[in-house]
Amino acid sequence: MRLRRRPKGAPEGETRRVGKLRAQIAEATRLRGLVRNPDLTAVEIERHRRRTLIGLWFFLALGLVFTTAGVQRFLAGNATPADPIWWAAWTVEPMFAGLLIVLLNFEALILSHGIDLEHAWWTRLKQVLLAATLFMNVIPQLVPLVTNWTEFNPGSALVHAIIPVIVYGLAEVIPVIQARARQAILNGYAEADRHQPDPEPAPPATPEATPKPDSEPTPAPKPEPLATAEQPVAPEPPAVVKTVQRGPKLPPQMIQAIDNARTQALREGREFTAADVQAVVRLPDDIAAQVAGSTTNGHAVT
């Protein structure tokens, strides 16, 4: 047996063929997980459903064009294009086809959501449309049997009888395809959810000890004298933010808002409370009290 060369620096037996096979195995392993993905299944089903419906609607339209010519011949009779009835006869079959298409669209939408159209006239209306189209297509082909049987064409009569039936069959199949495609997608998602492991319950949270606020209230700052024209106003020293040793951790925006509220409360000569905290930041009562207690110690919240 001929041995293949191994690349430089590769271990013993690690030839190029072995490396190629390893890459193919790794690719197959990744593809196995993707093939079982319900999202990929839904995309493939939707793509094939769209292609199938496009083909069915195309051939349904061709069949309706054929039946339109037969109906026009039946209604127009011996009329010529100079007679208005000759032109009006072309609109009868498109009207029947339009009604049928509207019913199909609504039926496909309802069936795709798992709802059956349980009404007798729903099926009767489609049957009436089929029977009218079938009758008006077949009768002109059977007239030569009575008038002059030598002009009778059995092939033409058969085609004029089969095509309306095929059109009706397509009208019944299109909504079923819509409903079955949706059901297949839902079944794939349900199967994936069934094999998904249940999430582990979260451990119970241990309650944190709420720090007690200091019993001594913070002394109110002395009111500053009003500035006059002769006495310039001294600039206010920047607030020194110290690191807190206890209390919840909050974002910098909330810390700045709480510091501003605390400064305002001190200027007004009152104690900084949990209500002042909740006035600027949305926090629960217990956390707001904890924040107010942390700030009354002369520290900033971190």
TrEMBL record:
Residues 192-236 are annotated as: Disordered. Residues 227-236 have a biased composition (Low complexity). The chain crosses the membrane at residues 54-75, 95-115, 127-146, 158-177. Keywords: Membrane, Transmembrane, Transmembrane helix. It comes from the Bacteria. This is DUF2637 domain-containing protein.
